[in-house]
Amino acid sequence: MLNFFKKPKEKLFGLKQLDRDTLIYRVLPKLLMEIMRKYFRVEVEGLENIPRTGPGIIAPNHSGFAGFDALLLSHIIHKDIKRIPRVLTHAMWFLTKTTSIPAAKMGFTEATFENGISALKKKNLIVLFPEGEYGNFKPTVEMYQLQEFKRGFVRMALATQAPIIPTLVIGAEETNINLSQLKFTKFLKGMVLPLPLNVIPLPVKWKIIFLPPIYLPYKASALEDRELVLEIASEIQERMQDQLREELLKRESVF
Q1: Which of 80, 135, 78, 70 is nearest to 103 (CA)?
Q2: For 185-228, how does the pLDDT look when each residue is reduced to its tens digit (9 = 90+)?
Q3: Which ranges constitute the DSSP H helices of 24-112?
Q4: DSSP one-letter string for 220-231
Q5: CA separation for the pair 15, 24 (Å, rounded)
Q6: What are the Cα distances from residue 143, in Å, to 42, 134, 146, 148?
Q7: Residue 179 belongs to what H/E stretch?
Q8: What's the pTM?
């Protein structure tokens, strides 16, 4: 217990002198993410697989409906690799100014092909969840069953020649229990939302694994080949699913 609250090496002085935006969108999120990292006892493997310079697409499985996986991934990459990734997130964050302004200040970007390409052409890392909301909001009874990958991340990789870094997040599935998936067909066509059991996250132990980068051996023009793009996305999904199963077999306890 004492180790959890031990004094960090990095000291934060002069909080009174900080402007409101810096305090709300930089200092407090950083503090909260460090608390969450310890709360979930996050174990990280494969940091050497993340490019230190140039573009790259971090492509994790998506789960837990609360978005903690996106927040923690961004925090870990920023702190451990010293790079600031652009996190492509659900359009729901950008429906109103109330949510879109803080989302933008925390480095979130609406998950569109154009936004991804723009960030990669500027030599940034992006975090993009190929399953989209169908992975994040799937019922807990389907935990660790990868939903069909959208193909945008493959097209982005082809267009910019950026490597894809498949990433496994283990633990987020059990952190927040989702009873069902709500699909809207009339007023919010295409919108998917969760039906959560708990709001306070359970203290499940997390493990994040950055797998070796995949450099696609094709020219940018290949992004117009729909069959090839589908084949690549399916192959990456299958590879990640197999490695997820292997990691789950090695796991001794959820807590």
Answers
A1: 70
A2: 555 555 676 777 788 899 999 999 999 999 999 999 999 999 99
A3: 28-39, 68-76, 97-105
A4: GGGGG-HHHHHH
A5: 11
A6: 19, 12, 8, 14
A7: strand 178-183
A8: 0.84
